[in-house]
Automatic annotation (TrEMBL):
One of its GO terms (cellular component) is membrane. Belongs to the short-chain dehydrogenases/reductases (SDR) family. This is Oxidoreductase. It comes from Gottfriedia solisilvae. It comes from the Bacteria. The keyword Cell membrane does not apply.
Length: 262
């Protein structure tokens, strides 16, 4: 029960990695606040968490692109849970289309969720963490933010923006005892691909290397309280990102083949 009585806010909590993060956090004794758009899934998850673990759980039906709803939710969280100890910005989605194919509206919407949602939630959590003199914001980015592939330009751009935001924010709040961690997963076996890859072609081609979301969730929760800046999952893909920066031309050819599987 390492996280007993700590309050952890998780966005995108209704399914996939967000759901597994909630279970892993509750298993460690944390009180969990769930944020997502689908009330039925949130309600069922709250019931299961409270049945399985002696923790408090609350949920808010919120779209992270709605600034007013996010503000109201975070205000209530601070009142009901005596502040926020950890924020995990997990909400996000992708679409695998070329720049020419994708509409500008889809591009804007992806940035609204993947980038501005992270910025808004992080900004609102900071005041509570500063009052406590400690805190941890964990942003679920992506290895796509380090190594982009074709048909994922907008998605990679949004995750690259998250990395840049996190790295700058870390410098601003270090003096306040607040940690900022980027977690960069590769392909993961979640409903992400139901939207990103409707044909199922890409998901099928990378099925053998897909990460288990339960294991990723456990890893993420284990990072809480540690001043770790960046975690790549799996580690060998993270090594590939470093190779990409050192040998861009060779890596470009390799990533062309990988991206064309989409």
């Amino acid at each position: 029960m390492r996280l007993r009585n700590q309050t952890i806010v998780i966005t995108g909590a209704s399914s996939g990695l967000g759901r597994d993060l909630a279970f892993s956090a509750a298993e460690e004794g944390a009180n969990v606040v769930l944020i997502a758009r689908r009330e039925e899934e949130l309600k069922n998850l709250k019931t299961k968490l409270e049945e399985m673990y002696p923790v408090k759980c609350h949920y808010f039906v919120v779209d992270v692109t709605d600034e007013n709803l996010i503000y109201d939710a975070f205000h209530q969280i601070e009142e009901q849970f005596d502040g926020i100890d950890v924020l995990i910005n997990n909400a996000g989605y992708g679409l695998f289309q070329t720049v020419e194919q994708m509409s500008l509206q889809d591009m804007k919407q992806m940035f609204e969720v993947n980038v501005f949602g992270v910025m808004c939630c992080s900004k609102l959590a900071l005041s509570s963490m500063k009052l406590k003199g400690k805190g941890h914001i964990i942003n679920i980015a992506s290895l796509a933010g380090k190594v982009a592939t074709s048909k994922a330009a907008a998605y990679a751009g949004s995750k690259h923006a998250v990395l840049g935001f996190s790295n700058a924010l870390r410098q601003e709040v270090e003096k306040d005892g607040i940690f900022i961690t980027n977690v960069n997963p590769g392909p993961m076996d979640t409903p992400f691909f139901d939207i990103a890859d409707e044909s199922g072609t890409y998901a099928k081609s990378v099925r053998k290397m897909m990460l288990d979301p339960e294991k990723v969730a456990s890893k993420v929760i284990s990072l809480i309280g540690q001043d770790i800046h960046d975690v790549d999952l799996p580690s060998w893909m993270g090594f590939g990102a470093k190779i990409y920066s050192l040998f861009p031309k060779i890596s470009h050819r390799v990533m062309m083949k990988f991206g064309n599987k989409k």
